[in-house]
Amino acid sequence: MSVDGEIWVICETRDGEILECCFELLGKAASLAARNGSNVCAVFFGEVPKAAALFASGAAKIYLSDGFERADDGLLAEAIAALARRHKPETLLMAATVRGRSIAPQAAALLNTGLTADCTDLHLEDGLLIQTRPALGGNLMAQIVCAAARPQMATVRPRVFPMPSLASGREGEIVRVPLKELLAEKTPAKAPERVGTEKISGNRRALNDADIILAGGMGLGGKAGFIRLEALADAVGASLAASRAAVHAGFAPYASQVGQTGVVVRPRLYVAFGISGAVQHLAGMSVSEYIVAVNTDGKAPIFRHAHFGLVADAMETLELLLSEFA
Ligand SMILES: Cc1cc2nc3c(=O)[nH]c(=O)nc-3n(C[C@H](O)[C@H](O)[C@H](O)COP(=O)(O)OP(=O)(O)OC[C@H]3O[C@@H](n4cnc5c(N)ncnc54)[C@H](O)[C@@H]3O)c2cc1C
Fold first, then answer.
1. CA of 264 to the centre of ligand 1 (A)
2. Domain count of the fold of the chain
3. 301 φ/ψ sector (left φ>0, alpha ψ -120 to 50, else beta)
4. Over the stretch 263-308, which tens digit does the pLDDT of each residue have?
5. Residue 98 lies inside a defined structural domain of this protein
6. Which residues on neighbouring strands pair with residue 213, listed in sequence order?
7. Residue 5: how many other CB atoms lie within 10 Å
8. CB 3.0 to 4.6 Å from 95: which of 21, 29, 42, 226, for a disulfide?
9. Looking at the domain assignment, is residue 189 inside a domain?
10. Which residue's CA is minimally distant from atom 31 of ligand 1?
């Protein structure tokens, strides 16, 4: 069956730059569209159009609005929902970044449609988006469809799809829609209230882009261990990551969680301090070029995946490294 609805990719910016994962999604959307004749559209809330890069990555049309970095997630969800009500896309994709994971479900709720979060693959069958994602603790891969409601919405983790090869010189249509105009159409319900902001400290690179990641788990013993890990990360120019158990214990913010329900990373070096190596953690870091593990338990599963292992106390090792590098 041929479907000529639009496939939208919501593009996220940070410090004025479009995130790489948005280009990855545009590339995937273009390959889906090539199968059924639909149009790939980038929805871009940026101050500067950056149209050439979006067209070169596969977009045929750009819905250009403003304010991604200034507006809060609830308002952006409202704007995306208003735009989708106007133009009725068949499919709407967003990267499963920290902001994407906040905006996409809110937009789905406003549009009365479903959302499959954290997909690891997407393909089309008779116009239906088959959304693959791990389920039951990663023990099986579920294929989920949104049979009736539209748009079909999914978030996909960064780096799941490769960067597309760029077709420079490609052009397309730009439809300008000021954010103010979209928000005038928002649903009358009270906008979500911002209750606080958690700042991810320092100038360290985003986890997705980091070359070196120092990760801590429960074996670091507490928040004090993470403060020392952060000091080492600052000294060597690394990014800080954590296991879910450590995040749940309040040792580190959610944005630093690596794994199935966190960020997927692919650094050149991943050093795991006091992390057991549960399958859900491995799902987020096992493709790292070099993995180094420090753990007191020589039988910890992480050692089966580490290129270098140290059966040692995490804090003692950390202090030794700090005396060397800090
Ligand atoms: C649906 C689902 C999704 C999940 N998603 C994620 C996810 O995205 N990311 C994630 O990380 N987890 C995730 N988990 C949780 C995961 O199963 C593990 O519980 C978690 O990864 C364990 O974290 P940890 O290794 O820090 O803690 P633990 O399992 O408690 O391991 C601590 C490790 O530290 C070692 N240790 C103890 N003391 C020291 C010391 N002094 N020095 C050195 N080593 C020491 C121990 O030997 C042990 O190996 C998920 C679970 C489920 C069910």
1. 16
2. 2
3. alpha
4. 889 899 999 999 999 999 999 999 899 999 999 999 999 999 999 9
5. yes
6. 239, 270
7. 19
8. 21
9. no
10. 276
